[in-house]
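Figure 3 (text version): structure tokens given as input.
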């Protein structure tokens, strides 16, 4: 008889705990829809993302005719940001040859550091 009484007490506690947490969950879900609409990508959105991926910004330090420049390169477009006249005879020929080809950097700070090294 004692085992049956203890079993009923434990079962009632388990049932009450389950009802407590289940009821709290049910009350918390009132007004919340089960399905959240997922936006489908449109052709225009996909094309815009693809166009942005292709055009990366690169900064180029280049010397032409005694003029040292920092160019901002986006795709095929080059825009001169900063320029300064330098004497090519002062620097080693290897450095000048490399600058004539153009040295590319991913960020502007690194390009400015190299520019300052040759200007100052």
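Below: residues designed for each position.
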């Amino acid at each position: 008889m004692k085992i049956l009484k203890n079993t009923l007490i434990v079962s009632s506690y388990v049932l009450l705990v389950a009802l407590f947490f289940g009821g709290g969950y049910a009350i918390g879900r009132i007004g919340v829809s089960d399905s959240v609409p997922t936006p489908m990508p449109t052709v225009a959105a996909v094309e815009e993302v693809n166009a942005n991926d292709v055009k990366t910004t690169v900064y180029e330090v280049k010397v032409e005719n005694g003029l040292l420049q920092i160019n901002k390169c986006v795709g095929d477009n080059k825009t001169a940001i900063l320029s300064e006249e330098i004497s090519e005879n002062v620097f080693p020929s290897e450095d000048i040859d490399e600058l004539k080809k153009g040295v590319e950097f991913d960020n502007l700070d690194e390009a400015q550091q190299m520019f300052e090294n040759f200007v100052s």
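The longest helix spans residues 2-28.
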